C-alpha cells in the first residue's frame, strides 16, 4: 500500500477521472416505461479500465497493482457515509427487519438455477465454485479453504469473482433500474436485494435506484447498506452450511441427468 | 496496515471527493468541509476500535456502527452531524473508489479471457439469480406485513 500512496501518477489520473466523470454528470434515459441511469462512477470505472497497457497506455502493470492496493481503504469514507445514512433511518430499518433478513435466502436461488446451467454448459466441478454464490471475497476465501484455489472449484469461483470485478458494478446498476421499470417489484425490495456482500455492486444498484426515485433516496440507500452489512455477516456461514451442501447435491443430480453416470467422488483438500 | 498510511489514503480520497462534490453536485468545498472531517473522524475511530477491541472485527463494521450510533435520532448533536454530512453527496464518494478500481481492472482482463465464455454466462446467471431471488422474497415479506 505504501507504494500506492507514493505513486503520484495514479492519484493525478484518478483526480482527472473524478473531475471528468462528475462533469459529465448523471444522465437518465427513458426506455419504454423505465429509466436507464448512468452515474459518474460508471464513467470513472470504464475510462479507468481503458487506461491500461492494452488501450490508452497511460498506466503500467505496477500502477495497476498500486491502484488495486488502495481500493480497500478508499471504501472506508463511503462506509462512514453509509453509517450516517443508516442511523437516522434506523427506526424504518427495524420495521423492515423481517423482509431484510428473509431476503438473504434469495441468494440460494443462484445455485438452484446456476448449477444445472453450468453442468448443461459442460462445466464439471468448476460449476460448484462458480454457481454456489455471487463469489465475492469471503466466498473465494471459503472455496480456497475447502477445495483449494488451484483446483476446478477454485477456477470456477475465481472466474465469477473476476467477472464481478470487471463488469459486476455496471451490470448491477443496469439490472436495478431495468427491474424497477419492468418487474412488479417495489424499489424498497430492490434496495434490500442490492446488498450481496460487495460494496461497489450495492452502491451501483442503490445509486441508480435513488436517482430514479429521488423522493425516497435516503431510505433506499439505508436499506441497501443494512442489507449489505447483513450479507457480510451471514454470507460466509450461509455458503458453508447451506449453499455448498446444496450445490454438491444438485451437481450430482444434474450430472447424472446429463451424462447418465454419477460423477467421480471429489477429494477434499488434504484428504489424499 | 499502519494507521498513518490509512489516514494518508483517506486524506487523498477526501480531497478528490470534495472536488467531485463541487463539480458534480455544486456543494462548495468550504461548506462540505465539516461533513467530510466528520466522515474522516468516523474512519479513524473505526480503525482505532479495530486495533483496541479484541475479536478482529473488521474496520468497516466499526465505521458503520459508530456512524450509525452518532446520527441516531436523539443522540446528542445528531441533527447537526446529519446536517453537515448531508452536504457530502454519497455519490461523490463513490467516484474516486471506482476510478481506482477501474485503473486496477486492466490486470484482470487477461485472466477473464482465459476463463472462457461459459464462466461469463454462469456469472451473469449468478448475478441475476441472487438479485431477483432476494428482491422477490423482500417484496413478498413487505407486502405480507403491509409495508408497501
Describe this structure as you would to a colleague.
The complex is a heterodimer of chains A (272) and B (148). Chain A has one domain (67-259). In chain A, 73% of the residues lie in helices and 4% in strands. Chain A has helices spanning 2-6, 8-24, 40-49, 61-95, 97-102, 107-120, 126-131, 137-146, 152-182, 187-193, 199-212, 217-259, and strands at residues 27-31, 34-38. Chain A is globular, with a radius of gyration of 20 Å. Chain B has two domains: 3-107, no CATH class; 109-147. In chain B, helix 1 packs antiparallel against helix 2 (29-52), helix 1 (3-25) packs across helix 5 and helix 2 (29-52) packs across helix 3 (59-70). The longest helix of chain B is centred in the C-terminal third of the chain and has 28 residues, at 117-144. Chain B is extended, with a radius of gyration of 20 Å. Chains A and B meet through helix 1, helix 2, helix 3, helix 4 and helix 5 of A and helix 1, helix 2, helix 3, helix 4 and helix 5 of B.
Give the domain tally of chain A.
1
* Strand-pairing-aware structural class of chain B: mainly alpha
Structural class of chain A: mainly alpha
Helix content of chain A: over 70%
Helix-strand pattern of chain A, N to C? HHEEHHHHHHHHHH
Give the overall pLDDT of chain B as a whole number: 89
Strand element count of chain A: 2
Strand content of chain A: under 5%
State the gist of this model.
The complex is a heterodimer of chains A (272) and B (148). Chain A is mainly alpha-helical and 272 residues long.
Keywords:
heterodimer; A: 272 residues; mainly alpha; two-stranded antiparallel sheet; 73% helix; B: 148 residues; 82% helix; transmembrane helix (chain A); transmembrane (chain A); membrane (chain A)
List the helices and strands and how they pair.
The complex is a heterodimer of chains A (272) and B (148).
Chain A: H1 2-6, H2 8-24, E1 27-31, E2 34-38, H3 40-49, H4 61-95, H5 97-102, H6 107-120, H7 126-131, H8 137-146, H9 152-182, H10 187-193, H11 199-212, H12 217-259
Antiparallel strand pairs in A: 1-2
Helix pairs in contact in A: 2-3, 4-12, 6-12, 8-9, 9-11, 10-12, 11-12
Chain B: H1 3-25, H2 29-52, H3 59-70, H4 78-85, H5 90-115, H6 117-144
Helix pairs in contact in B: 1-2, 1-5, 2-3, 2-4
